[in-house]
Amino acid sequence: MKAGTMKPVHVIGGGLAGSEAAWQLARAGVQVVLHEMRPERGTDAHQTDGLAELVCSNSFRSDDSESNAVGLLHEEMRRAGSLIMATADKHRVPAGSALAVDRDGFSAEVGRALEAEPLVEIERREVRGLPPGDWDSVIVATGPLTSPALAEAMAELSGEEDLAFFDAIAPIVHKDSIDFTKAWFQSRYDKGDGKDYVNCPMDQGQYDAFIAALLAADKVPFKDWEKDTPYFEGCLPIEVMAERGPKTLSFGPMKPVGLTNPHDPQNKPAAVVQLRQDNALGTLYNMVGFQTKMTHGEQKRLFTTILGLEGAEFARLGGVHRNTFINSPKLLDGTLRLKVRPALRFAGQITGCEGYVESAAIGLMTGRFAATERLGQTPSLPPVTTAMGAILNHITAGADAETFQPMNVNFGLFPPVEGVDDTRGPGGSGMSPRNQDGCQPGQGKKKPKRLRGRKRKQAMSARALRDFDAWLTGAVLAKAV
After folding, report:
1. What is the mean pLDDT of residues 340-367?
2. Three state DSSP letters for the chain
């Protein structure tokens, strides 16, 4: 079928997932209409009308493809021609072994790429309610900040009540307001360039006083409809972490390990506040792990008691917003289509995946699945041994629908490496792997040696990339002519 004779695929939402889905469709030769409601309608978290705006951290987390699951996902996406990863690589800023980006440059570049793509039409208006019936292929990538009208319509269609959790935003500080007679540059254990983070130390007395003040600080009150909404464990507000015990932060985002204060090398700090570069110019730094629901006045008061930040000027203060997601294991099929209305696919955080990269990866897959169908072919799922296949399997089949919560990609979602004794099985299920002859370990055969730690992760990563390359080869989309 020629591209000009095809009906377009509609993508609702111009975030990471929607932008990636639109790109994959266009690369396959399929016409796309990308609907983005900003600036017609804003959200509680977005500050611009740019496509693929990063509203929380500027970090895509670890870029280690050999022994980290999110780094492995980075590599798989690169191999699949991801716009998001290519743009992130182009606009990366120093962040040790992590991949962090200049958020403004990143968003602008994604927008330029999609605007220049002749098969992509960008429509700036809100899609209110369910898409029209003549839209026979739709990808809903509206993210965790889906407009109320569309969210209500989807809930009514699916018969499910909204699931929701709170996500939190960390403050951003102007670098030239940091006092480097007290703070210093260093990465933990000198990873990356060895100096990718700004460190502000606390001794035990300063840390204890900070925790006490944090717990006593005024917080923005929840609205009535927000009070029973749980936080996502991977992005807890700093005051919520502090409520779990006085040592929680010093073993979490404020851990002092792997660092030496050049201003006082003889005394190890009891805790350290780290800031990570947030833009390419190096003028803005993000307070790592300091997402918060404190009032803006309390944030300024408390954070300027931190050594090195006494004169800090904030480009943005922290905040909390509610995220929504659907019960994907119950509602979606294996290619992310809504079971009760297969013309609708879902992508990104609204599916219950968590994280920038995971969201974009789901967008990539939905784009490929929808393009395959438009070209008259049958979608092929990435193997569950790959990072993409593992997160896809989790949100569509592997998770328990009764207890479903947002999930980052991690090696616990992968099946064990063949021949390795790992009694947890896929996702900790308790399955016991068989030897190559089909016998259970201990049935007359020598028990295979168990790989542990980094070696186990490296084996999983190597297997994943082999299987992913084989999947790409078998699932190549012929561009329409």
Report:
1. 94
2. CCHHHCCCEEEECCCHHHHHHHHHHHHCCCCEEEECCCCCCCCCCCCCCCCCCCCCCCEEEECCCCCCHHHHHHHHHHHCCCHHHHHHHHCEECCCCEEEECHHHHHHHHHHHHHHCCCEEEECCCCCCCCCCCCCCEEECCHHHCCHHHHHHHHHHHCCCCEEEEEEECCEEEHHHCCCCCCEECCHHHCCCCCCEEEEEECHHHHHHHHHHHHHCCECCCCHHHCCCCECHHHCCHHHHHHCCCCCHHHCCCCCCCCCCCCCCCCCCCEEEEEEECCCCCCEEEECCCCCCECHHHHHHHHCCCCCCCCCCEEECCEEEEEEECCHHHHECCCCEECCEEEEEECHHHHCECCHHHHHHHHHHHHHHHHHHHCCCCCCCCCCCCHHHHHHHHHHHHCCCCCCCCECCCHHHCCCCCCCCCCCCHHHCCCCCCCCCCCCCCCCCCCCCCCCHHHHHHHHHHHHHHHHHHHHHHCCCCCCC
